User: Fold this.
Amino acid sequence: MYDVTVDFAGLTGDELVYDLYTGTCTIANYVAGSALQVIGVELYLLPKVGISPNWAERTVAHFNWSVMLSWVISVGVC
Assistant:
């Protein structure tokens, strides 16, 4: 199954791969040998670090700092 994932993605070794709903990172760890970087994201952790869905709408904010922080971290890693 993991070979099919790598083949389907057509990885060349220069990609940044996001493994959404990563769980125990088994696919992320397997793909890591074929990609430049792999970032695993598990959504149940996001509320624990202060990131919640629709935060800006619920707080009537015009800017979502948690999203900005996530973006800055991802750009900094790349």
